[in-house]
Amino acid sequence: MKPGGLTLTVGAVVLVGAGAVAWNLTNPPAGGHSMVPPDTSGIAQGAPIVQVALPETLGELETIGKHAYEGVCAACHGVNAAGQNGVAPPLVHITYEPGHHGDESFWRATQMGVRAHHWQFGNMPAIEGLTRADVKAITAYIRALQRVNGIG
Fold it and tell me: Which fold does the domain 60-148 belong to in CATH?
């Protein structure tokens, strides 16, 4: 390598890296969500975080998922996955769109828990007793709610 060649190469890498950081700061993700938790300070403690429109009908798997969701998930994530301020986030939210949190992420969350990262409600513990089929049905219900509410 010619004298100064290493310096030039390192400088180019730094310049490209700085450009990438600047681009990411000025161009939000295509999905429209950010890593900054939404401000819920104006919502009463325990109140729903979002308003959820309901599907007119549910398919068989979605209906099974609704019942499973109500028995296991609603205590934290609220009725119709609207969230509960100070408790757990809404699952009918752009943060959980399929392109950002795929169906498999719901299974992993139930099995391993989730470290708080989008919302400031604390970590989600693993949920015992759910089978993969249970979570598939719950996810189908959540996706049906999301679709009616313009998500995914």
Answer: Cytochrome Bc1 Complex; Chain D, domain 2 (1.10.760)
